[in-house]
């Protein structure tokens, strides 16, 4: 089926109405559950007094969101704004003292980042990070990829597995609540960056990159603690670009994005006053009494929220990086737009890193079953180590690895006769509808496989049991139909984007029949 296969306009209007009505219906169930149970004892720790304008309590169950935009908001803003001001002062002063500011700006970024890390975390943490850099730089000089991977993964395991992580953590005695998060985030992202440096050095034909290149890359402050990861080849080329120019209206677009992020932050905070989507799933006694529509809405909204959080957090960091004339990894693709496992990710930086050095490197063009199985197994093995090995992560990795391979198996199976012959004989619009049915089931597999990592295994099992077993056929088919409507609207958006990218003459519609563009 071509991506440009069209559906009648009235059919798309129907899908829009059904999807909109279903979302409002599910939200009303969540709102009712939130309002009626606001004073539950189980909610005491995660539902706190909110903005007095609303006269309602607020869901504060997500520590990461509260950390970024409430508790440590001023500290993070101070560090990022300081980075921008420090770089700007250097570009103004450098010409007056005979220094080429463009040529040395990556050094300025690294110096400020290193000083900020040193002041924030102390000299023992800095020494630990530098030891990781020295080890992986030494291995990089050998120019053997397998050695770089082995050394990198062993170093990563040292901060993820007991007793080595506890020993290293004691080297940095925390004096504030955020220090534990900064320790694991700083070390983890630093090791991935060092591995990228080492692997890119293996590709360098003439000589080696210098240790200062690694330090300048690793200590770029906006990316240091929270990501996203930008592979060394991209960062090195962009940070050392001497031709610093802005595109037309680029500063205007940066300003618009900054205000957009601020608007989303305020909207999410308002949202948390009325829908306790994070707290409710943690109370299994309450969850078992909720309707099937409420459970479906909770599962879906938790994944959408996680995407919004990633998009905003990375968006704020990317705004600073864009001011530095970098082209950072973009925020992840919206969950609502996903209906295949191949495009599912919540951190585009990690996803790009894994694809470049593992998934695409082993899997090639991803059309061979055994190569794809090997590629996905290796990819999720590294992801498991990155997330921290535990039962929940093992389950999450297994099901997502299975889903990625199962998609290929199904595609291979239905590409064989007589299925390929039948699809070739039917219209493109009908083929799109049939594929949409399978994509709808796939969408909920993505939701269930990932919601267990955001909430709990018990909540994911309950949602699956209620929607697939106890809710069959009414809840099952109605939720799948609503999902099918959403998938078709996503496909329509993709079709329109394909037409903009590669316009073709539109065929006339004859006698009201369906057309394919």
TrEMBL record:
<feature type="transmembrane region" description="Helical">
    <location>
        <begin position="472"/>
        <end position="490"/>
    </location>
</feature>
<comment type="similarity">
    <text>Belongs to the membrane-bound acyltransferase family. HHAT subfamily.</text>
</comment>
<feature type="transmembrane region" description="Helical">
    <location>
        <begin position="107"/>
        <end position="138"/>
    </location>
</feature>
<keyword id="KW-0812">Transmembrane</keyword>
<keyword id="KW-0256">Endoplasmic reticulum</keyword>
<dbReference type="InterPro" id="IPR004299">
    <property type="entry name" value="MBOAT_fam"/>
</dbReference>
<feature type="transmembrane region" description="Helical">
    <location>
        <begin position="369"/>
        <end position="387"/>
    </location>
</feature>
<dbReference type="GO" id="GO:0016746">
    <property type="term" value="F:acyltransferase activity"/>
</dbReference>
<dbReference type="InterPro" id="IPR051085">
    <property type="entry name" value="MB_O-acyltransferase"/>
</dbReference>
<feature type="transmembrane region" description="Helical">
    <location>
        <begin position="12"/>
        <end position="31"/>
    </location>
</feature>
<keyword id="KW-1133">Transmembrane helix</keyword>
<feature type="transmembrane region" description="Helical">
    <location>
        <begin position="434"/>
        <end position="452"/>
    </location>
</feature>
<feature type="transmembrane region" description="Helical">
    <location>
        <begin position="258"/>
        <end position="278"/>
    </location>
</feature>
<protein>
    <recommendedName>
        <fullName>Hedgehog acyltransferase like, a</fullName>
    </recommendedName>
</protein>
<feature type="region of interest" description="Disordered">
    <location>
        <begin position="496"/>
        <end position="517"/>
    </location>
</feature>
<feature type="transmembrane region" description="Helical">
    <location>
        <begin position="75"/>
        <end position="95"/>
    </location>
</feature>
<dbReference type="Pfam" id="PF03062">
    <property type="entry name" value="MBOAT"/>
</dbReference>
<feature type="transmembrane region" description="Helical">
    <location>
        <begin position="219"/>
        <end position="237"/>
    </location>
</feature>
<keyword id="KW-0472">Membrane</keyword>
<dbReference type="GO" id="GO:0005789">
    <property type="term" value="C:endoplasmic reticulum membrane"/>
</dbReference>
């Amino acid at each position: 089926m071509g991506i440009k296969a069209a559906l009648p306009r009235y059919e798309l209007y129907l899908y829009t109405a059904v999807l909109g009505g279903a979302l409002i219906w599910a939200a009303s169930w969540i709102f009712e559950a939130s309002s009626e149970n606001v004073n539950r004892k189980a909610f005491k720790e995660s539902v706190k007094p909110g903005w007095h304008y609303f006269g309602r309590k607020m869901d504060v169950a997500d520590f990461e969101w509260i950390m970024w935009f409430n508790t440590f908001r001023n500290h993070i803003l101070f560090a990022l704004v300081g980075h921008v001001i420090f770089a700007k002062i250097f570009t103004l002063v450098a010409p007056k003292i005979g220094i080429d500011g463009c040529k040395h700006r990556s050094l300025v970024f690294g110096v400020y980042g290193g000083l900020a890390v040193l002041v924030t975390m102390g000299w023992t943490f800095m020494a630990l990070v530098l030891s990781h850099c020295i080890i992986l730089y030494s291995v990089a000089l050998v120019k053997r990829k397998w050695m770089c991977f082995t050394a990198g993964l062993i170093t990563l395991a040292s901060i993820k597995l007991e007793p080595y992580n506890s020993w290293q953590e004691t080297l940095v005695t925390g004096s504030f609540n955020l220090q534990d998060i900064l320790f694991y985030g700083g070390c983890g992202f630093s090791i991935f960056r060092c591995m990228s440096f080492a692997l890119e050095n293996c590709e360098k034909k003439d000589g080696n990159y210098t240790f200062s290149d690694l330090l300048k890359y690793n200590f770029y402050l906006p990316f240091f603690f929270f990501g996203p990861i930008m592979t060394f080849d991209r960062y090195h080329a962009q940070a050392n670009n001497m031709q610093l120019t802005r595109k037309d209206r680029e500063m205007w677009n940066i300003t618009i994005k900054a205000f957009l992020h601020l608007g989303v932050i305020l909207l999410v905070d308002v949202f948390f006053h009325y829908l306790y989507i994070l707290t409710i799933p943690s109370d299994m006694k309450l969850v078992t009494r909720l309707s099937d529509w409420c459970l479906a809405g909770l599962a879906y909204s938790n994944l959408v929220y996680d995407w919004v959080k990633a998009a905003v957090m990375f968006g704020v960091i990317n705004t600073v990086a864009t001011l530095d004339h970098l082209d950072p990894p973009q925020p992840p693709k919206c969950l609502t737009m996903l209906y295949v496992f191949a495009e599912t990710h919540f951190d585009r930086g990690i996803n790009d890193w894994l694809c470049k050095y593992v998934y695409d490197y082993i899997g090639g063009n991803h059309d061979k079953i055994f190569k794809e199985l090997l590629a996905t197994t290796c990819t999720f093995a590294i992801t498991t180590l990155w997330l921290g090995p535990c039962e929940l992560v093992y389950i999450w990795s297994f099901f997502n690895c299975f889903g990625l391979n199962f998609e290929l198996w199904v595609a291979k199976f239905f590409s064989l006769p007589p299925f390929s012959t039948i699809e070739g004989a039917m219209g493109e619009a009908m083929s799109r509808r049939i594929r949409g049915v399978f994509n709808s089931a796939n969408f909920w597999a993505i939701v269930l496989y990932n919601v267990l990592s955001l909430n709990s295994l018990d909540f994911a099992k309950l949602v699956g049991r209620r929607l697939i077993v106890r809710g069959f056929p009414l809840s099952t088919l109605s939720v799948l139909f609503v999902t099918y409507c959403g998938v078709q609207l996503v496909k329509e958006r993709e079709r329109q984007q394909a037409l903009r990218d590669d316009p073709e003459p539109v065929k006339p519609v004859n006698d009201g029949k369906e057309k394919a563009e």
